[in-house]
Structures are given as C-alpha cells and as structure tokens.
Amino acid sequence: MTVTLADVAARAQVSPATVSRVLNGNYPVAASTRERVLKAVDELDYVLNGPASALAAATSDLVGILVNDIADPFFGIMASAIQNEIGGPGGRAGGERLAVVCNTGGSPERELTYLTLLQRQRAAAVVLTGGAIEDPAHLTAVGNKLRKLADAGTRVVLCGRPPTPEAIAITFDNRGGGQLLTEHLIGLGHRRLGYIAGPEERTTTRHRLEGHRAALAAAGVEDDPRRTVYGRYDRLSGYEATLELLRRDPTLTAVVAANDTVALGACAALRDSGLRIPDDVSVAGFDDLPFSIDAVPALTTVRLPLAEAGARAGRIAMGREEAPPGGIATVRGELMVRGSTGGPREA
Amino acid sequence: MTVTLADVAARAQVSPATVSRVLNGNYPVAASTRERVLKAVDELDYVLNGPASALAAATSDLVGILVNDIADPFFGIMASAIQNEIGGPGGRAGGERLAVVCNTGGSPERELTYLTLLQRQRAAAVVLTGGAIEDPAHLTAVGNKLRKLADAGTRVVLCGRPPTPEAIAITFDNRGGGQLLTEHLIGLGHRRLGYIAGPEERTTTRHRLEGHRAALAAAGVEDDPRRTVYGRYDRLSGYEATLELLRRDPTLTAVVAANDTVALGACAALRDSGLRIPDDVSVAGFDDLPFSIDAVPALTTVRLPLAEAGARAGRIAMGREEAPPGGIATVRGELMVRGSTGGPREA
DNA sequence: CACTAGATAGAAAGCGCTTGCTGTCACGCT
DNA sequence: AGCGTGACAGCAAGCGCTTTCTATCTAGTG
Questions:
Q1: What is the pTM of this model?
Q2: Of the four, A247, A253, A300, B261, which is 20 to 30 A from B213 by CA?
Q3: Are residues B312 and B288 in the same domain?
Q4: Is B110's Cβ below 8 Å from some Cβ in A?
Q5: By residue range, what is the domain housing residue A310?
Q6: Residue A55 C-alpha, separation from nearest chain B C-alpha, in angstroms
Q7: How confident is residue B88, by pLDDT bands cut at 50, 70 and 90?
C-alpha cells in the first residue's frame, strides 16, 4: 500500500541503507547512485515515515512553540517570527522541520499536557512564549518538565517569559516598560491614575504593575490600592474595569492598561461615559500591537520588539545563534507617545 | 537512560504487552494488574515514546491546522476554536492529541511543505483554513496531496476554504457577504464606491469582489475598474490603496475593504487626508474581528462566525460530528451596520 | 607490483511499541 | 468428574528506518 524505503531501494537497485543515506545526506554516496535513488524516490512518490525515522534516529524534526492565546496578535507575531527561523533550511537533509504552535489558552494543565506531548514526540526543540503563571506547584512542575526535556536533548528556549534555571530566556523588561509609561503620565501632570492589571497570577501582570508602582513611588504619588483593578487580557475586561475605576473615583485623569487590547476596551468605556480622550482622561496601553496606532486617538504605549525577540529565540532553538551570556537576554520596551495621553483636565 | 515500556513492565512484574494494553485501554486487564502498572508508570515517570508507538500502531495523535497568517486574529480565532475541539479527551487513552498549528505565511510552497511534513508524521487529521491560492498548478498539487493524505487515513477538513472534491469543507459565503455590504452602501445612496481587494490570486479576494460587483450590477451602478485596487490583507495596504483610490477619484463617497484590517488602514488614510468618516466617506470592512467595534467610528462589516466554523471543523476532523450533506457546508456572514457608514456627502 | 588508504555499498542489528495468536486458569455446566 | 468458556497475560513478530561494522573496489604509494 504505502511506499517504503525498501521499495525505493529495490527500484533503484541499491540497499535500503543507501537510500537512507541519500535522503539524509550525511554519508558519502556516489553521484550516480544518488541520482538513481532520487529518481526512484520521485517516481514512487515516496514520503519518509516520520515516526519510523524518529524512532531509529532517536530524534525528530518537530519543534513546538507554546503560546497562551493564539487569537492574540501578541503571540501570533512572536510565533510567526519563531516559525520563520525554524521552518527554513538547515538541519537534516530534506531540510524541513515541522514547527508547530500549541495553544495553551493560558491554562497551566494544558501547558503541561503540551509539554508532555512534545516530550513524547521527542521534539527537537521547544519555545515557550509569554508570561508564566506564578503558582509554585505549577512552576515546579514546568521546571521539572523542562529539565527532563533538556536532558532528553530537546533544546528549550523561553521568549517573553521570566527566566528560569532550566532554560535559555529572552525576557521582556515589563517592569521597566511599565515604569516608563507611568513616568510619562506623571510627567504630564497626572496624579490620579487608574491601573487595569491583567490576571493576578501572571508574571507579566505583576511586573508591569510593579513598574507602575515604582514610578508612582519615585514621584511621591500616593498609590491608592483602589485605583488598581485586575482583569483578563481582553477588551471586555478593559471596558468593565474602566467603568469600575470610574465608579470608584470619577476624578481619575488617566488610565493605564495592562496591554493594548485592554486599553481599547478602556477607551470604549470612557467614550461611552461621555469622557474625551485625552482631554478628560488619558489612556495608555502596552505592547504596541499593530492596531494601536489606529485607535482614535492613537494609543500611547510601550513597544515590545516581539518579532525580533521571537526570531532570536527561534535561532537559538535551532542552534544557529549562541545563547546570550548567562542564558538570559533582557529586551527593553520603547515608549511610544501618541495622542491618547495628554495633560490632565485641571492642568 | 530513558525509561521504556520494558522497564515499566519489569517493575510491575508483567509483560510489556500488558503495560501497553493498560496504557491504551483497549483490552481487558485485571484491575489489580492495571493498578500495579500505573503505579510503576508513575514511579518511573514513564513517558510513552511517540514515534515508536506511531510506528507500531501505524497512526499518530498529531493533528495539523494550516493557517495563512498566524499573526492575524482571523486565523487565530479559527485555530483556537479548532484546537479546542481537538485537544480535549476522546481518542486513544492517555487521551490527548497534539493539535498543532502550522503557519504557511500564505506561501504555496510552505503550504505544500507542511502538508508533506504532516503526511510524513502520519497525522491523524489535517484542517486547512482560509482562502486558497488560485494557481492551477498549486491547486492540483494540493489536491493530490490531500487525496494521498486521505488515502493514508488522515482525515482532511477545510475551514473557510472553497470546497474541493478531496475533502469535507466548511465554507464561508464570501460572495454573499460582499454583496450584502455593497447593497447596504448602495441603499444609503452611494454610487461612487472604491474597493480595496486582497491579493489577486486568492479565492477569498475574488469571491468578496464578485459579491461587490454583483451588488453594483444589480443596482445598475457603473463598475469602473479604476475604482478597484488590489493589495495585501494588511493595514498598510489599506492605507496606500485608499490614497490611490482618492487620487484616481477624489469624489469617492465610500470605500469597501477586503477585510477589517485593511479597513482600518483605509480609515487612517482618510483621516490623514482630512476626510471625515462617515460624513465625507463611508468605510466598510469584512470579518468583524474583535477590534472593529473599537474603531472610531465603529466599523460596518460582515460578521463571519469564525469560532463556530472552526469548532465544527474540529469536531468533524475528530470524527465527533458527521460531515455535512455533500461534504460541504456553507456559512453565511451577517451584516453589522455600525457608525462607519452613512449617507453620501451630497445626499 | 604488492600494499594501504579512501570511498562506497551492503548486511544486519536494533529503536520501543502494538497486537495477533497462544496459553493458563478458574468457573460453571451437564 | 469432564469440559466448554471467559477472562487475562505473555510470546514474538513485526512497524520502517538508521547506523555500525564489514566487504569490496579503486587508486595512490614506495
């Protein structure tokens, strides 16, 4: 039924070993023989049996990319960049690797499940993107998994994740970015800033919030805990949180959101409340996703070099770039000041 | 080094066959034996060797999802829905399937490469999303591949793709949607409509444009080819195309975009040209991605039930839902009239 | 011209798992 | 008591490929 290596060998009048060597290109094969084999492969329309090959060679060409939310461009952009570096040539002949993205949906269990599945497939490499969940049990579990993967020869790289001892990491300076943003707002004269945080248990959330608070503290601005609301990383969450913030303190002059998507929701809530941006209330986001420039007014935010970081992580995962010193590279965000922030009302 | 089935068997004092049967749960094993085995598995921290298992059983638990652009929420939303239906339980014991998304970047070669890679892995199922490329050679190549995959037992499902004889398809009625949109605009009184199409060789592009033209024809509105510009499915393309349309005919009263992202670019171009939306020019998008409601004014568009379609495709791929009659299900879009469209200037 | 090294090709032993077929018991019938 | 019958468990034969070790042949060398 299906064509096997042996069939090709028979057709090309060589041994299976030779066919394998032609296909893998890591052993001298006479040009004439090679041609004969390739011809047979072509004629029979032979497709290598991946599992068999992986079993015999004890390695596979599968590379996994874990993301928290595949519908979120934040992850899409990184994943795309990673895949670009991996999908290409380089590696075993036949050349291609199967770079696949796995959507955890932010669930710790699914993250672990995917890791196990990839371990099961003897993946060549795994890249984990996005913030981690700060549950100690889960952290240990993931750490163990990563160590086991690494022990089994899988290259593990983190991208936009806090560093861990188990893997090489490209990390975003979320704390610094958050600080930059709030400094900017304070510099404009704001003193009553609402903060819409992401899910409480995520590192990204915590770091950005820490930056925000650091900026407040540095400027001697009181940090009323009632001005912080936790939510999800989505638009609706931003909308609702803004309404809540406004309810708690109608005199707010600025809202800092956990990310751009949340900021968009905030803008909508503000508009629906009859407030103008930035005249009445300034709004700031985070990430600088493509759509933020299209908000009206355009969103002030912190640009994270998602594509660059992803590409680098991908290259490291493929062993095409050296790991950063200490196994950790921190990438800073850049403040993008746009129309959504301005001086406070009473200026 | 790595724990194998045999190790577990030794520890549990049973044969490897029994361990395998416990793990696969498709053969009677006495409860006490099962427990002993499970305990050994746990103690040894055994992880099944996927390739070996796939080789022996001649099937794998890999499911591939092909998307054109993973950074585009259009695909992200579908992929997420598909993965949700697949990742869950059901299937071989151990239960989980490895649902992975592959990013073709819209390139025909990569599409084919991924298909081959998936074939090589003996994937359990493959779901192709998004429009196809209308190059006959490529179409045949993909068709052949799909047939081979199907012959090898891989379930193939198309989601948001035009139907082909080789697979079950959930298709979007892009033509109907395009028509709806343009009818709406014509109904408002518009007669000079610019159209920003996607890449010329994609089915999605063609179908939406056909719908647009059908609406024009039905209303007896002249269809000046100079009012149509082709581009990519991204924001910048929308921006540039709009400028071009304006150059060609400054009296345009409406712009219909290939999708929401393009529409956002169009809005920006219009604003930068000093035109108000919808007072001076109306704008319409397509897809109703989450951010379209946050555009200012909110985008009139055609909502496509991406998540529903994806979920259905996923279920069909897993054999958990019957294929639609004839192997084809067409899903209609729903016109969402919002603030970005209104009566024309001179009304 | 015998001899060795280099270049190729093949034989064969697995890689770790699944599964058809063959036992082995312990029951429950007649 | 004799036996058919389930219910389990184990044997062993692969699945299709890679790779080590060996065999063969050619060509270069002193």
A1: 0.93
A2: B261
A3: no
A4: yes
A5: 58-173+306-331
A6: 5
A7: low
Q: Are residues A66 and A44 in the same domain?
A: no
Is residue B252 included in any domain, yes or no? Answer: yes
Residues 6+ apart with CB under 8 A from A1: none
Q: Is A284 helix (H, G, I), strand (E, B) or coil?
A: strand
Contact flag, residue B5 CB and nucleic strand C, below 7 A: yes
| Interface mutation target, options B117, B126, B292, chain A, most CBs of A under 10 Å | B117
Q: Can you list the alpha helix ranges (DSSP code H) found in B191-330?
A: 203-219, 235-248, 260-272, 306-317
Residue A155 lies in a domain: yes
Q: Tally the domains of chain B.
A: 3
Omega prior to B278 cis, within 30 of 0: yes
Residue A340 is assigned to a structural domain of this protein? no
- Residues sharing a CB contact under 8 Å with residue A347, sequence separation 6 or more, in sequence order: A189
Q: What is the CATH number of the domain that holds B195?
A: 3.40.50.2300
Residue B346 lies in a domain: no
Report the protein residue whose CA lies nearest the C1' of nucleotide C17. Answer: B53
Is B119 within 8 Å of A47 when comparing Cβ atoms? yes
Question: What are residue B228's DSSP bridge partners?
Answer: B195
Question: Which nucleotide shows the minimum CA-to-C1' distance to residue B3?
Answer: C16
Check B80 against A60: CB less than 8 A apart: no
Residues A86 and A123 in one domain: yes
Least confident stretch, A137-151, A333-347, B255-269? A333-347
**pLDDT, chain B, mean:** 94
B122·A50 Cβ contact <8 A: yes
